[in-house]
Amino acid sequence: MSLAVIVLAAGKGTRMKSDRPKVLHRACGRSLVGWALSGAEPLDAEETVVVVGYGADEVVASLPSHATGVVQEPQLGTGDAARVGFGACDGDVDTVLVILGDMPLLRTATLASVLETHRSDGAAATMLTSNFADPTGYGRVQRNDGRIVGIVEERDADEVQRAITEVNISVYAFDAAVLGDALGRLKSNNDQGEYYLTDVIGILSADAQKISSVAAEEAECLGVNSHAELAVASRVLRGRINGQLMESGVAMVDPERAYIDADVEVAAGATIYPDVYLQGATSVEIGAEVGPSVHATDAHIAAAAVVRFAVIESANVGPLAAVGPFTYLRPGTELAVDTKAGAFVEVKNSQVGPRSKIPHLSYIGDTTIGEDSNVGAATITANYNGFEKNRTTIGDRVKIGSDTILVAPVTVGDGAYTGAGSVISHDVPPGALAIERSPQEEIPGYAERRKRRASQDGE
Questions:
Q1: Peptide bond into 21 cis (omega under 30)
Q2: CA distances from 19 to 225, 344, 402 (A)
């Protein structure tokens, strides 16, 4: 049977108090609507339609290629949104699954269970429900001798109905033809003047159509309408991500203090220490040790590398490399095998060759360093002349003395040395020693004369 998925994602999210559309707020590196789509994607729907409204262009731009955005304008309720989405579907679909774009915790297995029950029961509609300890704010499921006869919204419910703990989760599977007919019969004669998708259940019940249900755990059914609820959802998703990684063989010293985005890849055999943030397209290979206190975004950390107390952005850390503590690797940085970027080192748009070291207190920008070279403490590659960036090239087996400033563009040849405290503004030939500093002078008796002068000035 052919399937269409309709994602309702038109709301602004007033309680978020943000100009960003609610469904674009992010949890563990993925937007809310992204989580909804990723949950439905394994169902292999022939069509996926996302109904957008507030911030329509921004939401549509965020959608993956397999999802089509359609605009609900004006926004006249969930029933109208479903009608807009249904109208964008191919007429040949048999089953329509309707989900919400602000429910990131729903698992694929739960959605699959709704579809399986729907098809096996031969139902006109199948609802996802749950029993909440506190059902406040949710529509209550009305039953008569166990048969679903309708949904009553909180604001319309009387005291008896409000005591019902079985709530509607707003996830439905419909027979496509039945849904199309019922959507055409919706009325807006309510205090909101809107069309409610929940009224479809009442219409089908009145038509004596079969309505099935699937129960889900309350924890899976959280909708996100505020930053507090977003934080709760993020914590649950983070627990799932970390749990899956540990099951795959990743060691975590304290999983409650590891913040790993959904699309990050961590290989079995890696170790994650506390206060680690791995975001975007970051990947960590086997045997790598990351943390404590590492923030990596769109980074690659290769096998057996060790990264401590560092910030890494769009940079690659090679096998066996050592990074940290208090190190900043900026975009374009490439550390080769067995390299080191040590304490209080910043590297930007630079390539560091195999076994080369930048141990401490240095800035390396727009630089290429060859193999087996060592950069002394407090070295700076001065890459900006006030108008443009220029590159520095340091060859193989080079020894850069402490407190050297290399004024780009400049090249230090293979096997060359620079003297400590030098400002190098001209190329250094291979094997040469470059020293640029004033000769040291001593002034005998200076301290005593200064002391006498200060004493006389104070009289």
A1: no
A2: 14, 38, 50
The span from the first CA to the last CA of the chain, in angstroms, equals 103
Using an 8 Å Cβ cutoff, are 307 and 289 in contact? yes
Q: SS3 for 68?
A: strand
- Positive or negative: CA dihedral 251, 254, 260, 263: positive
Q: Where are the alpha helices (DSSP H) in 382-459?
A: 446-457
Token digits of residue 312: 């890494």
Which helix (H) or strand (E) is 306 found in, with range?
strand 306-307
Of 213, 214, 232, 212, the residue nearest 223 (C-alpha): 232
Question: Which residues are paired to 335 by β-bridges?
Answer: 317, 352
Residue 111: Cβ-neighbour burial (10 angstroms; 0-12, 13-18, 19+): buried
Mapped onto helix, strand or coil, the DSSP state of residue 389 is: strand
Q: For the chain, which domains are there?
A: 3-221 (3.90.550.10), 251-434 (2.160.10.10)
Helices 32-40, 108-121: inter-axial angle, 10-degree rounding: 50
Whether the pTM exceeds 0.85: the reply is yes
How would you classify the pairing of strands 306-307 and 47-52? Answer: unpaired
Beta-strand pair 166-175/125-131: antiparallel
| pLDDT at residue 132 in the model | 94
Query: Alpha-carbon distance 246 to 253, whole Å?
Result: 10
Sign, CA dihedral 330-333-338-340, equals: negative
The single-letter DSSP state of residue 282 is: -
Q: How far is CA 39 from the centre of its chain?
A: 16
Question: Which is nearest to 152 in space by CA: 135, 160, 140?
Answer: 140
Lowest-confidence segment of 84-93, 290-299, 345-354 by average pLDDT: 84-93
What gap in Å lies between CA 353 and CA 363, rounded to an integer?
16
DSSP 372-386: T-EE-TT-EEE-B-S
Q: Among this protein's residues, is 25 annotated catalytic? A: no
What letters, b where the CB count within 10 A reaches 16 and e where it falls short, cover 28-67?
Answer: bbbbbbbbbbbbbeeeebebbbbbbbbbbeebbebbeeeb
Which residue in the list 25, 300, 360, 426 is annotated as catalytic? 360
Q: What percent of the chain has pLDDT over 70?
A: 99
Query: What is the rounded distance in angstroms from the CA atom of residue 342 to the CA atom of residue 339?
Result: 10
Q: What is the mean pLDDT of residues 100-113?
A: 97
Of 112, 121, 110, residue with least CA distance to 3: 112
133 — phi, psi (to 5°)?
Answer: -60, -40
